[in-house]
Specification:
With 363 residues, the protein is of the alpha/beta class. It has helices spanning 62-74, 80-85, 107-117, 146-177, 193-202, 220-226, 229-243, 256-268, 293-302, 319-323, 334-337, 350-359, and strands at 3-8, 11-15, 23-25, 34-36, 91-98, 102-103, 122-125, 132-133, 138-145, 181-183, 216-218, 249-253, 275-279, 283-284, 290-291, 307-311, 329-331, 344-347. Residues 79-164 form the Quinolinate phosphoribosyl transferase N-terminal domain.
Length: 363
Amino acid sequence: MSMLKITTALSFTRSFSLSSSPSHSFPLQRRIVSMSAIGTRNPVISLESMAISPPSHPTYDLKAIISLALSEDAGDRGDVTCMATVPDDMEVEAHFLAKEDGVIAGISLADMIFNEVDPSLKVEWYQRDGNYIHKGMQFGKVQGSARKIVIAERVVLNFMQRMSGIATLTKAMAEAAHPAHILETRKTAPGLRLVDKWAVLIGGGQNHRMGLFDMVMIKDNHISIAGGVTNSIKAVDLFLNQKNLKMEVEIETRTLEEVKEVLHYASQNETSVTRIMLDNMVVPLPNGDVDVSMLKQAVGMINGRFETEASGNVTLDTVKKIGQTGVTYISSGALTHSVKALDISLKIDTQLALQVGRRTKRA
């Protein structure tokens, strides 16, 4: 059982670890699958203590990802610098410091990492995942063994900086895209699929399919191999019927003619298709603007019979215009494949860190 101690209106401490059972199921917005985890002797993580729970995956082992990140840092010798310079029995207090404005993400994951390194470390946060932090703000602290804090530092920051960068861009895109919903894609860092998608949720976006297993997505190569739009839909309908499977089905279209073909097939047949992707129907203009007339026409043709998803040429500058066309979703690979990490640090001497930060205009 996790422990939650309220210290101020925005300050709380948490102590938890990964599940002691072989598998652990997390709630998911769009579909239910489970996440596996290696058992430990420590208390079970309380998802209720998390501001935003992670998405789910049937085989993803978050504990193994944390262990891999720590082991690639430690190698076969451990932290030789700490061994040389930091007394084994020294205890310190280190503070998290924001060096730029953005949405903080990865706090719950940081708790897991600190717990993996040393369960006796006391971690206290003044913000929660999804909150906006400002340059110069101290938003958390960790107390305990100096060696263990320094060992955990870089792994914690690597995850938090990446997740916060994703969450910050997602927040901006989601607000601009309204009333459409912003989605990421499978263009995530290898091995970090769940972590990247978790950051999107923290930033206010929604998750697209987790992988190849939880949604049928008929893309251009599938269409080419199957011999066209109609043949590919027929093949999927037959497969799902034979396997007695119920899942969402999306088909990619690149022209208005392909949209018409999907609509014609659906008017003549019972189909499993639930969403039509409108790919690259946002046309860049020489002046930096975009022409969304083709996209708007496609949305009008579909007229609410299917969910719609705009894809291609989606940026922070173009997403507002795309969102005003009436599409249901807008997907952007840039949320995760071109992320700019948010600059944050963990400092024992915070006064010196702030002094240096002001000199370099980073705090």
